[in-house]
Amino acid sequence: MTIRLKLTLWYSAVVSLTLIAFSLILYTFLSYSMVQEIDRELAGRAVAVVRSVKVVGPNWFSRQQIVLPDVDVFGYPNTYLQVVDSYGRLVAKSSNLSQQVLPLSEDTLQLAAGGQSFYEWLQVDGQRIRTYNYPLMAEQRVVGLLQVGQPFSGIQAALNRLKWLLWLLSGLMIGAAGSLGWWLARTALRPVEEITKTADLIRQELNLQQRINWEGPADELGRLAATLNGMLDSLATAYRELEASHAAQRRFVADVSHELKTPLTTIRGNVDLLRKMGDDQPAVRQEALADIASEAERMSRLVSDMLVLARADAGFTLSLKPLPVQQIIEQVGRQAKILAGSLNFKISCRPSCENIRILADPDYVKQMLLILLDNAIKFTPPTGVVELSAECSGDVVKVAVKDTGIGIGPDELDRIFERFYRADQSRSVGGTGLGLSIAKWIAHQHKAEITVTSELHKGSVFWVTFPVFSRPDQSFP
Fold it and tell me: Which of 86, 116, 196, 381 is most buried, judged by most C-beta within 10 A?
């Protein structure tokens, strides 16, 4: 069942119940009002008759008698008058009763004996008669009963016509309400149909750039259109990100294949060389084994770096704890000195960093700084300088890795953090091309920002900016 049909049925049902309730109330009210009007007329006529009635008391020669004027004098069209004594014997009646009499039951006589007037319904020759019973009193004793009646057939016929008229009008109005409800439901749901058609078109054509064109007011349908457009925006963004992720994944697989192909080819070539002439030429054998070891070590580094990036892609989070800045710089500096060898390597930690702590993973923060230092050392000539420094100001800690190496070109600065990207100058040095990608991910995990400034043939500076976790003037748990 469609919503349009449901709305039409509900609307028709509400209108129908309203009309039926109105008709019943109107019919009941008019019936009650007409009966009340008849009762007032009967009571008024009974009072007029009673004023002319005389009761003659008993004496030695006769019983107590009711002396009546000519009841036809008080006659009205469609009004019956009848008087009986206390025993129910007919005393007088109006001429329009002809040969008929108003029925009189024992219950009526008993009620009249109580001296209270009352109304009742009588049935005479198949027609209902509304009757007013008025006891006649003499010396505080009921001596007779006056009955004033009026046929209800005329009023009943009018009420029947009213009933059929109400049924007819109700039926017509219900039909009109159903048609109106159908039209209103169709008009109200037309924007929903347009939205549905647009959404279905988007589904069929897979066009996430298309939007629902809503020019109406900002009502419920307007909010629905806006919500759907927002959902389409989110889907389009997610789809673009998914495409970018797939492209990056394909590029990653291609780059890994390329990076692994070279060392594997080198290893296979050296193995073939050893098979042919390794035993006869010890120098060639040693050189081949050295190449195999070098390429195996390179593959090991590549696999290790790929494992780190795979964890990053899987949503791996680091376990951070408060660490003193000076301690980190000193430990990383000691390891970097070994890497630097005879290169001029400097370490400095400003006094402002004393007792300053940052939230960090000790292993990964060292790995990040060593990646930056390893690059600086590899691309700095023997006469150059590499420096690791830290300074603290405000709510940040800035760690800098400076070198006087070959530098990075302006057109390459935006790409050095991409996976497997290596500048032209670095291709001769070697490496996996994943180090800076790993460093950037580690910095992100520490809520740190990594930036770089560089000038060709003059050197580079990598800045890692950490948020301060605690200062000397702050209590530390």
Answer: 86
